[in-house]
Amino acid sequence: MNPTDATELKEACCRVGRELAEHGWAPGSSGNISARLNAETFWITPSGKALGTVKPAELCEISILPTRQPEQTSDCRPSSELPMHRVVYENLPDVHAVIHAHLPYTIALSLHDFDFQRVIVPESVLTLGTIGVAPYSLPASEENAVAVSQLMMKHHTIVLPRHGALTFGEQLEQALHRLETLESLAQTIHLALQLGEVQDLPEAECRRLWEHRQKF
Ligand SMILES: [Zn+2]
After folding, report:
1. Domain containing 189 — which CATH number?
2. Is the pLDDT of residue 72 over 90?
3. 3 CA to middle of ligand 1, Å?
């Protein structure tokens, strides 16, 4: 990556951080964003800082292989949720961005064991495919990274119950769109449930949707 592209990517990470903060998806110092620099390294937002205030120079450069030393090329303290970002880059070479946020409606539905596999609105299939739901695990733990690793081959959008969500993509914008779609879906379902039962899309319509998705 040439220096101009690298600078733009760092700025884009910070812009996305501000967007998440404005939505209320990164309360306190929660939420984290990472972007791949090359085959061996990625940047991640630092620990203990409000995501909306992170500056490009504050991103931490991290080795994708955890065994490689030095792990960090600066004195930056990376997000404590680094393990689940790293496991994605380590195993999926086409992924260039990972976002984790504390999405209120998504978390609320997870507290009620909502089945995220249900197809209720077409957008969930068209943008998200199937949503992965990890078992609950301690935030920022290796156990959390293992939970993500067991779903990431099939899902690019993963709900972390009682905690938030993780999305990734070939570009930062794609990971962001997936995150936005998930939270919008959760908000819509939450609103609809106030009015009563919510029906799933009929199976025949789901099949048509999947065919439609394959085409595009
Ligand atoms: Zn978190």
Report:
1. 3.40.225.10
2. no
3. 31
Q: Residue 28 Cα, ligand 1 centroid: separation in angstroms?
A: 11
* Alpha-carbon span 114 to 105, nearest angstrom: 11
Q: What is the DSSP letter of 51?
A: G
C-alpha closest to that of 134 among 123, 121, 145: 145
C-beta separation of 87 from 66 below 8 A: no
pLDDT tens, residue by residue, 2-56: 777 889 999 999 999 999 999 999 999 999 999 999 999 999 999 999 999 999 9
Distance 99 CA to ligand 1 centre (A): 10
Instruction: Give the E-state strand segments of 75-146 in sequence order.
Output: 97-101, 132-133
> Is this model's pTM higher than 0.85 or not?
yes
| Predicted confidence band of residue 75 (pLDDT cuts 50, 70, 90) | confident
Domain count, the chain: 1
Q: Which of 168, 159, 67 is nearest to 110 (CA)?
A: 159
8 Å CB contact between 26 and 50: yes
Range of the domain at 162: 3-215
Compute, in angstroms, the gap from residue 31 CA to the centroid of ligand 1: 6
Identify whether the C-beta of residue 201 lies closer than 8 Å to the C-beta of residue 120: yes
